Amino acid sequence: MLARDVFRVLSILSPFIFSAYGVNTLSLLEKPIFEAMYQFGDSIADTGNKVRAIPHSRCGRPPYGQTFFHHPTGRCSDGLLIIDFFAQALNLPLLDPYLDKNGNFTHGVNFAVAGATALNVSTLAAKNITAYVSSTLLVQLDWFKSHLKAMCSTPSECKQKLGKALFFAGEIGGNDYNYAASQGKTMEHLRALVPEVIQTIMHVVKELIDLGARRIIVPGNFPVGCMTVYLAEFKTDDTKMYDELGCLRSWNEFAMFHNDQLQTAIQDLQEQHPDVAVVYADYYMALASILSRATSFGFEEDGLHKACCGSGNNDYNFDSSKMCGSHGVPVCPDPNKRVSWDGVHLTQHAYQLMADWLLQYILPTNNNVRVA
Ligand SMILES: *[C@@H]1O[C@H](CO)[C@@H](O)[C@H](O)[C@H]1NC(C)=O
Ligand SMILES: *[C@@H]1O[C@H](CO)[C@@H](O)[C@H](O)[C@H]1NC(C)=O
Ligand SMILES: *[C@@H]1O[C@H](CO)[C@@H](O)[C@H](O)[C@H]1NC(C)=O
């Protein structure tokens, strides 16, 4: 029952499925069950891969994890992430990271790695952009293929299993732009990266479909102009550069530029695969709508863009040379009152609200299923 409702959502998120391909998709919709989830991506979804590859990485140090786990897990937040709230809503266990030797992968795997890019490290290097994490999206896809070998022995057996799973292909690509922006690339350079980033994401989605995936969520980018790190980095006295939420217009326009191209690519792919649901998840609107009603959710009005964990005596409590997890960097008294956890990632409270926003499309009638 739950899964059927979930499926209804997917179709609401992608009304196109029904309108253009009603018959085929409906037959798919009638018997969906989510027995597993598979996540590809970066720090927005990493539940502990990066910290296993690089034990001293920042998200593996206190105060990360303080709210929910009371110790760091490698999640880049004070607590749970969007993917964790989806797991809870679907009555699945939290996804273990692929690199966890003791991981239980009965109900899926998390391949996301903090800092990962969509494009290969070598591809970025050829554009004079240094990426710091080798486990890029295509490497994560290779991990998935290795995992499949352990999970099923024939293509049809794999297809049968994967057909009952929910896939998250992203958010990914944000770091390609983050690295470029922090290495002095212009907005024009960044825009030039977008088609290749989208192509890589869609290549992975296609491969997943070929392997047997039938329900794939493809998240877009955040409104990066509202992210503390961008606000601090590109701070200006020119008030015209900011929108009504205090976000940088040009960076939000850039995020929309990526998101528009991603949605077009999703629609094209959906047309080619009417029997599969490829669903855009609007992380941009999810966060923007939370920011626009922030005080009603208990966020501090004057701290809308201020990092909870950070240093720097400025509007943003952010100093890239002394970030959260470094020695002596303080934490705000109540992370639930902040949207930004460390200037780059959001608090559990903000992620929970984003997940709620996304799930309201996915579980519109299921009032009794609530995230913790
Ligand atoms: C893995 O998790 C499943 C349920 O989520 C459980 O039934 C199984 O016993 C677990 N396996 C191990 C080895 O802990
Ligand atoms: C990117 O890396 C993958 C393997 O991880 C490789 O198969 C592919 O050829 C590379 N692509 C480019 C453009 O370098
Ligand atoms: C590469 O980027 C660096 C800045 O990160 C810059 O100093 C250098 O001129 C760039 N080189 C080329 C060939 O664009």
Automatic annotation (TrEMBL):
Pfam families tied to this protein: Lipase_GDSL (PF00657)
Gene Ontology MF terms: hydrolase activity, acting on ester bonds
Keyword Transmembrane helix: yes
Transmembrane segments: 6-29
Keywords: Glycoprotein, Hydrolase, Membrane, Signal, Transmembrane, Transmembrane helix
Classification via InterPro entries: GDSL, SGNH_hydro_sf, SGNH_plant_lipase-like
Keyword Metal-binding: no
PANTHER family reported in the protein's UniProt record: GDSL-LIKE LIPASE_ACYLHYDROLASE FAMILY PROTEIN, EXPRESSED, ZINC FINGER FYVE DOMAIN CONTAINING PROTEIN
Family: Belongs to the 'GDSL' lipolytic enzyme family.
Name assigned to this protein: Acetylajmalan esterase
